[in-house]
Amino acid sequence: MEIVKNNMNTILSVIGGLAIVAVVVMIVMSDPGSKKASDSTFDKNDENRPVAVLSTKKIDWGEINLNDVKESEVELTNEGNSPLEIKGLSTSCGCTVVKVSQNGTETKEYGMHEPLKNKVSIESKSLVKLKIIYRPYVMPVEGAVTRQVFIETNDPVNPKLEISASAVVKK
Question: What is the CATH number assigned to the segment(s) 52-170?
Fold first, then answer.
């Protein structure tokens, strides 16, 4: 009789543990904060879709020295009716990085070797500033240089945006 009672307690403990795990999984899956950027998909004809607009797609730093550091800001505006999500952010070279400035807060630097891992959300009719920083001494070259910033969004019309930055580097 004692063996049956111990087995029954073990079975009830296992069932109780599984029930707790199931409840925790349901709570985590239903948490809106746990959604990934890819969860927000829109049709190209959706009136409520986000609309990504860059203030410029080209930067020209002109003639610079190898040891100079050049910075420029480009605005990324959401002219749509749903939140615009930056799902990816990287650069074409380790010498170029980008930071996102939103509501007075600036992110760390993202670039070729450390791309954006967490999405950045831009509310409807709002903007962020992308600070693009070029450090030619990181990848020393001389002459005409063009570097790119790559931006992935949930805008179905503009899922991939690119900013080109150019300079003429002198040693």
Answer: 2.60.40.10
Q: How many residues does the chain have?
A: 171
CA-CA-CA-CA dihedral for 28, 126, 73, 167, to nearest 10: 90
112 close to 89: Cβ distance less than 8 angstroms: no
Q: How far apart are CA 53 and CA 34, in angstroms?
A: 27
Q: What is the per-residue pLDDT across 56-75, written as a single tens digit (0 to 9) for each?
A: 999 999 999 999 999 999 99
Rounded distance between C-alpha atoms, residue 132 and residue 113, angstroms: 15
Measured between alpha carbons, how far is residue 168 from residues 70, 96, 135, 147, 162 in Å? 12, 15, 13, 12, 20
Sequence spans of domains, the chain: 2-34, 52-170
User: pTM for this one?
Assistant: 0.75
**From the centroid of its chain, how far is CA 140?**
28
